[in-house]
Amino acid sequence: MGPKVKAFFDPQTNTISYLVRDPNGHAAAIIDSVLDFDHASGTTQTSSADKIIAYVKEQALDIQWLLESHVHADHLSAAPYIQDQLGGRIGIGNNITLVQDTFGKVFNEGTEFQRDGSQFDQLFDHGDVFHIGQMRVDVLHTPGHTPACLTYVIEDAAFVGDTLFMPDFGTARCDFPGGSSQTLYESIQKILALPDETKIFVGHDYKAPGRDEYSWETTVGEQRKKNIHIGGDVKAEAFVKLRDERDAKLAMPKLIVPSLQINMRAGNMPPPDEHGDVFLKLPINKL
Known about the structure:
By secondary structure, this protein is of the alpha/beta class. Helix content is 25%, strand content 22%.
């Protein structure tokens, strides 16, 4: 029996957070949580995370893991806030160190910013196996969108982050520092090698033209046949050409500057100054 999955859609960032629970018990994990952030005022709110927390308490669930599919560039992680409320260990791919090194330089963080992933409780490598209650979780390293992207395969369900979108929307951009369309193509092949009936839960949805409702669940078989970028046995060269041409026309995500600075710290804010105030940096001509 596969996991029980409840999705929480955030309309401000088009992010889907997932609560994944063991059908045979109360053990659960939260994947890709959202901390609400108003860019104009620089204020945070916790309404999105509080909805998840309220549901967890209502169901009397035991949160064992707070999992990040990658260092998000389009929303802030609420993992530390949820951890304070519910417990659980914060995990991400071990290539977080590459992301921290890259963006530590972009944001001129200095030597006090640790680039060893120590802000997280667990760093996962490709092939790692862990459990949520009795459910087995297999870790796939699926970089390309970012160097630290992971897919969590939980029994018959795969949580792919931003690697794949719904079949009618395609695949993730690869133009951030450390991204690679060739690498993404290779990563997607790992996902498509899973059984056809494997459920795929995507990290975002933007409603493709002609679709009226937001969607976030598909299957490996549907992706292999119908994905507009990669389906139908598209070859690497054609995919790289399509992806690179498309990426060249995309604007940077609205929340990329705050998101990267906070998410590379496992969702924690930069250290406060002597007055207890927190500031973010705005690099000029760096992104």
